[in-house]
Amino acid sequence: MIVKQSSFFPDIDEKRIRSLVVQELRQYVALKVQIENLKEQKEAGTTNLFPEFRRIKINNNLKVKQVDRALNCGLDEEERKIIELKYLSLKHLNDIDIYLELGLKKGKYYEKKRAAIFRLATALGII
């Protein structure tokens, strides 16, 4: 679905934007674990416990910092909580479970979720 945005944005494919943001959020969770593992290895005085196929750790650190900033500075508290429960939690939660847990009405929840996705996309330079 192509959405007509304000004059600040050309026509954008909302479904594609959402997909890209969700993909980055899922990768963010794994990258945070990777960074903690590398830090732990360094503190233990060892490296390369596992084989490496890609050597892009600098980009990974930068990605994690920038997603952290986007989550903590670019979203309001409800938006951040929605993103955390929906995409950053290890437990899979359905939308209905989330909006009931947060005490939001269905329409307000989807409005906040959509706004959060677009704010993240903007903060991360996706749009």
As residue ranges, the low-confidence spans are none
Number of discrete helical segments? 5
Order of helices and strands: EEHHHHH
The quaternary state of the protein chains shown equals single chain
Class of secondary structure makeup: mainly alpha
Strand elements, count? 2
Give the integer mean of the pLDDT values: 87
| Largest sheet features | 2 strands, antiparallel
Fraction of residues in H or I helices: 55-70%
Beta-strand content estimate: under 5%
Strand order of the largest sheet: 1-2
As for the number of domains, it is 1
Protein name: ArpU family phage transcriptional regulator
Coiled coil: 21-48
Keywords: Coiled coil
Organism: Bacillus capparidis
Provide an overview of this structure:
The protein is 66% helix and 3% strand. By secondary structure, the protein is mainly α. The chain has one domain (13-123). A hairpin with an 8-residue loop joins β1 and β2. It is globular and about 50 Å long. It comes from Bacillus capparidis. Keywords: Coiled coil. InterPro entries: ArpU-like (IPR006524).
What is the structure about, briefly put?
This protein has helices at 14-43, 57-73, 77-88, 95-101, 106-123; strands spanning 2-3, 12-13. The protein is mainly α and 127 residues long.
Write the layout of secondary structure elements.
Elements: E1 2-3, E2 12-13, H1 14-43, H2 57-73, H3 77-88, H4 95-101, H5 106-123
Antiparallel strand pairs: 1-2
